[in-house]
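A common beginner's mistake is to predict each chain separately and then try to dock the pieces by hand. The better habit, illustrated here, is to supply every component at once so that their relative placement is modeled jointly.
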Amino acid sequence: MNMPVAKSNVSASILSAPTAPAVAKIVSLPLRQTAMNTRIRATLVKIASAVIPPLVMIALLLTVWQVLCMRPGATLPAPTKIWTEAYDLIVDPFFVAGPQDIGLGWRVLVSLQRVAIGYGLAALFGIALGTLIGQSVWAMRGLDPIFQVLRTISPLAWLPISLAAFRDSQPSAIFVIFITSVWPIIINTAVGIRNIPQDYRNVAAVLQLNHFEFFWKIMIPSAAPYIFTGLRIGIGLSWLAIVAAEMLTGGVGIGFFIWDAWNSSRLPDIFIALAYIGIVGFLLDRVVAGLASIVTRGTSAN
Amino acid sequence: MTSYCKIDHVDKTFTRGSTETCVLKGITLDIEKGEYVSIIGHSGCGKSTLLNIVAGLTEATVGGVILEGKHVNEPGPDRAVVFQNHSLLPWLTVYDNVRLAVDKVFGAKKSRAERDEWTLHNLNLVQMTHAKDKRPSEISGGMKQRVGLARALAMEPKVLLLDEPFGALDALTRAHLQDTVMGLHQKLGNTVMMITHDVDEAVLLSDRIIMMTNGPAAQIGEILSVPIGRPRKRLELVTDATFLKCRQRVLEFLYERHRFVEAA
Ligand SMILES: Nc1ncnc2c1ncn2[C@@H]1O[C@H](COP(=O)(O)OP(=O)(O)OP(=O)(O)O)[C@@H](O)[C@H]1O
Ligand SMILES: [Mg+2]
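With all components supplied together, the output reads:
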């Protein structure tokens, strides 16, 4: 619909009101029949297009691997060999056949427990410290370069220090997870706090929110997208760190299992463990991402 | 006689490093209870700065604001602001945005049920009850401003401060909202201070129009009373002689005597 051209900008709001009703021709579009079965078919096509390509790719890669490793003198086992030799590990993740002979599912759970403690502490501590640092420009300027350096240090490099400090493998492993994953959480939280828009601060000021209310009602929700970015990087790093830490500290975790399998030349078992680590890492990332999208609903859309 | 709200010899100078910019110089203004005052002036002359000083969000360098005989120098719900960019909290629903203000202002005075009712009442005033469970990102710009208005009204402010409340809206939505604000002012008798760029809007809504000179060191150039009775009807005013005269007066001030000199 065309409005009459306003003579000047300032008078547009007045002049535009008394518009003569235009005689419009009504064009009716034929309604498309959306039958039930076409919708079901559309859903099936969508699922298939998401599932089939990765399956085809996996089959292809397994075939290439099989061909490459079937030659005599191949150093790595082929998929068929892994299947026959590690059959018990593949079919039952939760068997218990002895103190050191348990399913990989149990081992993953033990590792996850360590990650839960280390990462949980890192999340609490990281968000708290990040919130404090984000309040002050000078704390930010002073600490940010230090954190940027510290966060590049490999989990393995922390291990001797932590073993020396704790003299016990369990807290050392947890500390390594903590120290690896805490930096991105601190940094992202601090940036999120710094980036709270002035508008929200003004709203809080007009409402006379006290410090406590400001923290819970403005700061945390406003910084939530940043905090979750940090948490997501952190969970990935934790999972990287746990495997490395367990290789050296022992125990029944999935990391130590790999080290143990290597020492007793059970190569096929290692491949199964790798698959477990990859899948669990992927799921952990999905869980945190899902949590983020629930908590920050609306916030990031604006 | 002391007025309801008095802006008393306000100067504002911003200091950034070693450069000082004087934005406002010697602003004195008395606002009566129930009065609708508009402030008009070219972009950058310091209108928002003045409004923020009244709101308490910015501190005056010299002078101050006296509301009902009391000096006010920090923000508070008795001077509720509707911001140009709505400033709704995006993680809260429309209802919760208003409820946050209601809980904070009336937390001690009203019961839970009363606060719920008061929130819905104010959403109803701006005709937004239908979208109360939506989030700000799911409603239009005009609707957001309505919610911002409801939030401000719900605080029962002594002075309602509007910073270009309709600036970002299209002409039709804007006209619609102007009518809403006019109706609410009629009904509730709020004291309103509004910033605008739009001459028609200023004349249509205000009892008095404060025209500001260009900055730096902007002053009040002229104050125009709009002697048009209420309720005012948009369509009838288009041909009203007083309306046209007021409009011409403001236009002359803005575009002849204080033409905006574009910075090179
Ligand atoms: N925090 C600040 N520090 C320094 N200068 C500022 C600050 N805030 C505003 N100014 C300056 O003060 C002047 C007036 O700004 P203000 O926002 O009040 O103008 P305005 O009349 O509201 O403009 P507009 O119509 O574009 O909103 C501008 O020149 C601006 O650059
Ligand atoms: Mg402004």
